[in-house]
Each structure stands twice: as structure tokens, then as C-alpha cells.
Amino acid sequence: MRWLAWVDDPSGVSRAGTGPAPAATTGPARRDPRPVSASPGAPAGDSPAVDRRSLATAQRSLGDPEIRYPLLPPLVSGCPRTSTDAMSYPVEVTYDYARVPDGFLTARPAGPGPALDRWSALLPPLAAPGLGEGGTPLIDIGDGVYVKDESRNPTWSHKDRLNRCTVSAAVAAGAPGVVVASSGNHGASAAAYAARAGLRCVVLTSAGLPPAMASFVTAYGAVVLPVPVADRWPLTRWIADAYGFHPVSNLTPFHTGHAYGPEGYKTVAYEIAADLGMPAAVFLPTGYGELLFGVWKGFSELHRLGLLPGVPRLFSCEPAAGGPLAAALRSGRPGARVEVGPTDAYGISCPVGGYRGVVAVRRSEGRALTVSDEDMRRARDELARRGLWVELSAAAGLAGLRTLPGPDGFEGPVVCVTTSSGFKDTATGGESPAPADPSREAVRERLRSAGIRS
């Protein structure tokens, strides 16, 4: 398998070739003095005012930030030097921030193309073509609360931002396909981006996958294998090893995920800042914590670049039936494993958390909240009354805000991220309305019962 090269690795190790995990280096990465070439797959005819170059330099351990690895190959099992049987630590991507162009937050592309390409400078090289991901609306629902509606992405979820980056890694690896373990959104998104890039896709899911989601995933040509939950991650690794497929989901006991994935989520923060400035707080539905970490990192980078006065407080919102991130923060541990009770919020129902979420909440001085299914249903209904149809899991952010007893010290606007369309819910499409009597009197009575008067 051949790795595509853009520049020499910061460690001085060639990016071409295969073999075991790359050797780590310590200390700051060496900057390559040569210009970085445009990211493969970037749309032609882009405005020269928008920087299309990746300034990514290396991968860095979150367990020990002094440990760095070459940018390629992407690490898919966390940091091999700091992870143990008791705890898995992820890696993140580092960048040459000194070369970020002026106007990073304000420059806009001149023509059509994936909105994510606008932020190429602070993303891993985008080797895979996009589908128009990103650029989702920020909707004012009153009282200083805004909704960042991620259901407007190509496959109707935030996962498209992640999979533009992870499938780019698969293309760079020369992999024949990708493999993903997913309860729904991640699998559909990975299947779509794999199809766009001309790659095969295997989705390991659960037997309870909603029929609509199964049709959605298979429409892209993916092989869908419903298996017991305990077998999904081991099978992901086996398919990666046996078939050379690139894994775009987790492989470790405590979730580390893909090194490049959360980098795509940074663009949520960039877009919020470009549209609104710095909010006082952001509330996010939280499963394994990758979105939470990506949004925190995006705001942190903007603050580092002098483009924001600080970083907003981040509030993770997990189902009360589980809540591994809340458990980890309560106990002061880098991660936790919990028993998960019944919940309809299947998209964020997770028995184990990851260190990324702990980092995001602690460093933003935020809080870990848990919300009941009833809290999420009320929030989902509130959003529907505002014209926004989201799945139950996606309403967790607004549910978290609404469960707070007071303003919680917010001085400024608050953003709630909704992650996915209501089309994805397990009960969607299960019932059809009964035929209506078309007589004028019967219709009048139906409208009257709905509170509509002539």
C-alpha cells in the first residue's frame, strides 16, 4: 500500500511505504520550509483569497503532547506509546499556525464547492472529493438561543464533516475501501463518502438498525452486516487487517476513533464564530465525545490565532441512561465505562467514553450534563414547532440547556448543536395517518380540534 505524499514529514521520516505504526518523535515538529501543495480533490476555480492548503504537520498524543508522529499514516488505534490496557489515549493533528493566512475566518470561496474546503489550512489534506458538507445554518430561536442545524449536511448529519477527513485518509492510504462500526449516522455518511471517492464500504451495525437507515446505507452500495454490538469493533479490526480496508471508526477499548475525524468537526466552531462571533456557551449531543472535542479545538485554535477573545464553555449532553463522560469527570478519571439502560436516543447511547471529551469539558470550563428521554422529547418537540425536525439524539443539546435551573452565568448568545434529521429515528415512518372524512363538516371539526378557527 502506498501513502500519497504532500511534503516531508515533520519527523524527517518518508511518508511513502507500509509497515508498523510510525516511530514517535518528541518536542516540536520541524517545519518544512517549502510551500505545501494544494489539497488533492479541492475544487478547481477557487478564489485565491481562500487558502486551500493544508498546514497539517504531524500527529500528537493527547496522553503526552510531547510525543509526535508523522502525519501519515494516520493512527487509527490511538497513541501506541501512552495507551495501556486500562486507558486508551487518542492522537490529534497539529498545524503550522504561523502560516495561517490573514482573513482565515472571513474569506469566503468565490464559487460552488464543498464548504469544508474553505477551512483547508487547518484540516488534514483533503484527498477525497466532497459532497457539499458544512456551511449549515445558524438559526435564531429566540431569547439569545441559536441552533446550529447539522441535519442540512449531505447525509443529514454532522458525520459528513468527519468522513470527508477520514475517507481522505483512506484515499491517501491507497486503501480499496473503508470499514465502519456504526449504529446509523456514521455508517450512512461513510458509505456516501466512500461511494463518492470510488471506494467499497463495509458497515458493521446492530440488529436494531431502523429499516429506513438500512435502506439509506445500502443505497450507496455498502455491505451492511448487522452483528452483536460486542463483535463490531473486533470485526472492524479483522476486516481492516484481512482486506486492507481503512477503518474510519474506533478500534480501542476506550474510544480513540480516527486521528483525522474530529478535525472535521472543528469547522462547526469556525462557522459559528464566522456567523456569530464567540458565543457564551455551546451545548452538544455527546456520545463518544469526538464532536465535543472537535468543536472545542476549533474555538481554541481561533483564540490562539487572535480571532476570538476566548473559548466558550462547552456542555456535553448525554443520555441519563448511560453517561460515561459525566462519570469520568465525576471520578476525575480520563475515561469511564458504564452500564447503559434503555433509551431511544440510540445515536448517542454509549457504554464507554473517551479522553477527548474530558479534555474539551475541562479546558473550556464547561459541564457534563445528562438528560432523560423525556427531556429530549420535549426539546425535539420544541424544535419541531420552530420548523426543525431532528432525531431524538440530536435534541440532546437543547434538552441540556432547558434542564438548567437558570441562566448559569451566560453573558451572550448560546448555541445548541442539532446533529441529525428526524428521518433517522427508530419510530420514523412507523405509522400513517388514518383516512379523513372529506366532508366539510368533518374537516371543520378536525381543524377545530387542532385549534384552527375560521
With strands numbered from the N-terminus, the spatial order across the biggest sheet is 5-6-14-11-12-13
Give the proportion of residues in helices.
25-40%
Q: Give average pLDDT, whole number.
A: 87
Uncertain segments are: 1-21, 26-51
Query: How would you sum up the global shape?
Result: globular
Q: Return the string of H and E elements.
A: EEEEEEHEHEHEHEHEHEHHEHHEH
Tell me the CATH topology of the domain at 261-424: Rossmann fold
CATH architecture of the domain at 261-424: 3-Layer(aba) Sandwich
Note the main sheet: 6 strands, mixed
> Rg to the nearest angstrom?
22 Å
Pairing-aware structural class of the strands and helices?
A: alpha/beta
Span between termini = 70 Å
How much strand? 5-15%
Q: Supply the CATH class of the domain at 261-424.
A: Alpha Beta
| Total beta-strand segments | 14
Continuous helix count: 11
Structural write-up:
This protein has 454 residues and is of the alpha/beta class. Among the domains are: 159-247, Rossmann fold, CATH 3.40.50.1100; 261-424, 3-Layer(aba) Sandwich (Rossmann fold). Helices cover 29% and strands 15% of the residues. Strands 5-6-14-11-12-13 form a 6-stranded mixed β-sheet, sandwiched between helices. α3 links the parallel β8 and β9 (223-226). α5 packs across α6 and α9 (373-385) crosses α10. The N and C termini lie far apart (70 Å). Residues 438-448 have a biased composition (Basic and acidic residues). Pfam families: PALP (PF00291). Keywords: Lyase, Pyridoxal phosphate.
